[in-house]
């Protein structure tokens, strides 16, 4: 395969590579970002505007999200994306592509096409590890549900170790070591953006933590709550999530207007 590197108006000589990039090679995402750096859309008046910064799409490796505030604008982006991929020998999987509508749902959903194929609509998808749900007032409600299930599975796996060591209960110090690696990581996943404004969603995570601590200490489910945390030294999940969210807020406030996350935060302040 022959390669050519173009930077600004300078073009290198042709050179050949005897092999491609190995799967998992650290240079793979960097090379992909360089390859996709030329991808962009012509400005559309229906593109998302964050304090003057126009955002028409998000790119995370080969997972690309096209954004528009209108059906016409989104269809225009789909045509432009198809044209770009065709010109650069890229293949689009329309079967793995879908549409989500946030906000007020129209009585009749429009039909959008990508490469001649009609795209399906979904109300819940996972993008970059975040589970989004367009039919719930809490955008990340599905994320809480998924992480609750993951936490329950991990906590049950630790509790199930009792069956492997005989009839004795797993030593609490050992269970405490397993907790941050297998349970807490799901408890706090996405807490920087999935703010705990819904008591019901947060209670799903709190309940699993309490059940795990009771099982770890060999106490009844009706046990007083305070000793569960003072004895183990484990922080209540709602407190831990708030602290992490505040730390992320401090980080965002220190960013400049050249960062989209900073602009998104300022837009939230303006609501």
UniProtKB/TrEMBL annotation:
Residues 1-132 form the Reverse transcriptase domain. It holds the Pfam family RVT_1. InterPro entries: RT_dom. This is Reverse transcriptase domain-containing protein. It comes from Lentinula edodes.
């Amino acid at each position: 395969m022959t390669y050519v590197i173009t930077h600004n108006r300078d073009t290198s000589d042709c050179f050949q590579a005897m092999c491609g990039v190995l799967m998992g090679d650290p240079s793979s995402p960097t090379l992909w970002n360089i390859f996709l750096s030329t991808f962009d859309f012509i400005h559309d008046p229906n593109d998302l505007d964050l304090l003057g910064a126009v955002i028409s799409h998000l790119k995370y490796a080969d997972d690309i999200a096209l954004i528009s505030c209108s059906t016409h604008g989104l269809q225009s982006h789909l045509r432009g994306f198809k044209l770009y991929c065709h010109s650069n020998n890229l293949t689009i999987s329309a079967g793995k592509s879908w549409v989500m509508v946030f906000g007020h749902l129209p009585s009749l959903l429009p039909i959008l096409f990508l490469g001649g194929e009609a795209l399906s609509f979904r109300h819940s998808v996972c993008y970059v590890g975040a589970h989004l749900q367009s039919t719930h007032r809490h955008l990340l409600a599905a994320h809480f549900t998924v992480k609750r299930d993951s936490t329950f599975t991990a906590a049950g796996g630790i509790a199930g170790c009792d069956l492997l060591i005989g009839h004795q209960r797993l030593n609490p110090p050992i269970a405490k070591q397993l907790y941050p690696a297998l349970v807490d990581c799901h408890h706090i996943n996405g807490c920087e953006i999935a703010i705990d404004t819904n008591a019901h969603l947060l209670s799903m995570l709190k309940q699993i933590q309490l059940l795990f601590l009771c099982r770890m200490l060999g106490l009844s489910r009706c046990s007083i709550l305070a000793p569960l945390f003072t004895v183990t030294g484990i922080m209540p999940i709602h407190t831990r999530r708030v602290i992490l969210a505040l730390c992320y807020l401090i980080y965002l406030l220190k960013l400049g207007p050249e960062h989209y996350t900073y602009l998104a935060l300022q837009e939230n302040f303006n609501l």
